[in-house]
Amino acid sequence: MPKWFIPLAILCGLMCATAPILVAQAPYESTMGLVQKVFYVHLPSAWMFLLAAIVCGIASVRYLFGGDSRQDRLAWAAAELAVLFGVVTLVTGPLWARKAWGVWWQWDVRLTASLMGWMVAVAYLLLRKYGGPGSDKLAAGLALFGMANVPFVYISVNYWRTIHPTTNVVPTLPTSFGVPLWFSAAAFLLLFVLLLRLRMRLEEQRARIDALYLSMDT
Amino acid sequence: MKLARLVLVVLVTCGASRVVLVAQQSPPQQQDEFVPIDQLPPQDQLPAAPLLVAAYAFVVLALFVYVVSVARRLTSVQRELERLEADIKRGSSG
Amino acid sequence: MFGRIVWLVLRKDFMIEVRSLETAYTMLFFAISCVLVFAFALVQEGRAPEGGAAGILWIAIAFAGTLALGRTFERERQAETLRALLLAPAARPAVYLGKLLGIVALLSAAETVLVPLVALLFQAPLLAHPIWLALILLTGTVGFAAVGTLFAAMLIRARSRDVLLPVLLYPITVPVIIAGVRATSVLLEPDVNTGFLQVWLALLVCFDVVFVTLALWTFEPLMTD
What we know:
The structure holds 3 protein chains of 3 kinds.
Chain A: H1 5-25, H2 39-66, H3 69-100, H4 109-130, H5 135-158, H6 175-217
Chain B: H1 2-25, H2 31-34, H3 49-93
Chain C: H1 2-20, H2 22-42, H3 52-78, H4 81-87, H5 92-121, H6 130-155, H7 161-172, H8 174-188, H9 194-223
């Protein structure tokens, strides 16, 4: 593991431990009250979900046209994190929506697009797990198509009216809400990087085992 | 693997602190400490606290399960690697 | 040269299909069974649900399309003919295009049976605007088949390919299904809103262009071992 891993892991642990304090001290939002505090995990995890999907897509394209197996490992690790943070986003979202909108689920564009993106990520993992030899290329192709698909899903779902708040809320947030949000987002980002590194380490070790077996055969 | 275990311990402790904190602030009577009377939300039919606790608990649980799964996979791979290297060493010397 | 390879691949598939009609018959029967299952599930007291016909038509097309894609490439796999096809000194994109046209032709043939059947069983005025409907069906089918042909060709080497094809295909083709169903249900309304139709058709055409281009571009690296 690289040298930065352990210090960053400790820092990440500390940040995760202090984030709830900041969240608890943040004022109550006037219309939604207590339940609005879900926001501090929902939004950062949604960002990490998006980041993981982008990392996976770019790494897949680079692997497909460059053939570097490091990119392939990165894409796999990112896809797993996309599923993880996607699950967090898709579960915390409805819990918040139940209170704020009165329904668990709404077929609005962001929810539907996130769900479809999450399904592509799950399909990616299924393909990697059950596809057998050669599935690395196929998975890279799937990631590429999944990326190209995002605008289409977005536009096609957009015809059902949206009630999800738009992104331009964030910059106008008062500091009392902004500080815990950005702190939480930073903690999530750190966690993302650490988990990505850990997951890539797993694939590196597996590759070493494969290489050892090959060397034993010859 | 020591490292994975360290990460795990750190995450568990901060996860636990999160749950405790959320649980502490969640009972409705504690709201008075934080919010001025005029900002109190109107009486709702739905209690928000269980939803909030569920959300935070789920986040902690999901991250915890993932870290455990990666750590377990990593240890087993590490063990296999060590076994293989030992085998090769024995094979080359004997 | 490119066009000739496309034509040769298409003609080869057509000749094989005509000889046995295996895929065509099984796919058609499967699609009809699908429609019947929906009829049993949704028609109550002799009346079809409002606007259900569009959805049922597209579900039947998607299911039948998955079956056809699986069958077509399974045949190639069993005879190891796809490898031979790829070994031939022919441009890979041309092979893909030939395959794609074959699938689209097969699905279009199935649709000519499905549309009257759905119109009949669900009392839907599907045939009131035949040209619009043909456009929607064609663009939708091309979009679905463009992704499907590439994935089915890729999966030929994978384990558990029969299960993985729908798993990969449906999340990616969601925009096609949404646009197809919405456009078809616009057609079913008493006074057709051409503006909506044009928007959905434009979306379908864009999807087709982007995904056919992407597939032509990635077919080469994806099919190389």
